[in-house]
Amino acid sequence: MLITLLRWGTPESPRWLLRQGRFAEAHAIVHRYFGPHVLLGDEVATATHKHIKTLFSSRYWRRTAFNSVFFVCLVIPWFVIYTWLPTIAQTIGLEDALTASLMLNALLIVGALLGLVLTHLLAHRRFLLGSFLLLTATLVVMACLPSGSSLTLLLFVLFSTTISAVSNLVGILPAESFPTDIRSLGVGFATAMSRLGAAVSTGLLPWVLAQWGMQATLLLLAAVLLVGFVVTWLWAPETKALPLVAAGNVGGANEHSVSV
């Protein structure tokens, strides 16, 4: 209810208004919230069918696959580890679940703030690729260490901070990957896939832990993160410093370039 009240009065998307031909309203919103010095470039309308099938057309399926898979591959380790934190904490040698939870919450705040800085400084594609590699390596090393190792705690700190930092991109990349006509479809589909993946993986965790143990569980989560790295390498566009229209333009020149 509080969030609903805080969101009351949120202005409509200026680009959506442009697509509806409501130019005066769009420019009035930009003028009010960003100032008279900011001009909203008129987006050229394209013939796009507003149907979910469009996401899987030859033009957009790579963007759809990338955003869905990278979102899922980040969310699965996040939900699995933090939903079952007390059990996992004891398994890796953190006996006090309350202390582990408090430490985790502090790390997530630090990671989120660090992520804001890194998102501004680094190319989004490079930030995501590097984070996937670091997270994968962290879980692999954790799986190979004996229970209770002091290094395990340091790696858990690194993992928690990194995954919190890179999670800033889940609110940026999907929105930048699609044109205005299907942006809500693309973002909604990627988010739905992430929630489905989180629900299934969280439900399966107790069985995996009971059957295979913590080492195998961490290695499976590392494999999920590695899949995210591969998909990002193959299909992620570089959208940093691009206007929203250009970022959503599929097939643009050098769209996979990595720059800072």
Automatic annotation (TrEMBL):
- Report which residue ranges the record marks as coiled coil: none
Which residues constitute the signal peptide according to the record? Answer: none
- GO MF term set: transmembrane transporter activity
Note one Pfam family from the annotation: Sugar_tr
Q: How does it sit in the membrane?
A: Multi-pass membrane protein
List residues traversing the bilayer: 65-85, 97-118, 127-148, 154-173, 185-210, 216-236
Cellular component aspect of the GO annotation: membrane
- Output the Gene3D superfamilies linked to this UniProt entry: MFS general substrate transporter like domains (1.20.1250.20)
Give the source species. Escherichia coli
Q: Which UniProt keywords apply?
A: Cell membrane, Membrane, Transmembrane, Transmembrane helix
Q: Where do the Major facilitator superfamily (MFS) profile domain residues begin and end?
A: 1-240
Which SUPFAM superfamilies does the entry mention? MFS general substrate transporter (SSF103473)
Protein known as = Major facilitator superfamily protein
Localization: Membrane
Q: Which gene encodes it?
A: ygcS_3
Taxonomically, the superkingdom here is: Bacteria
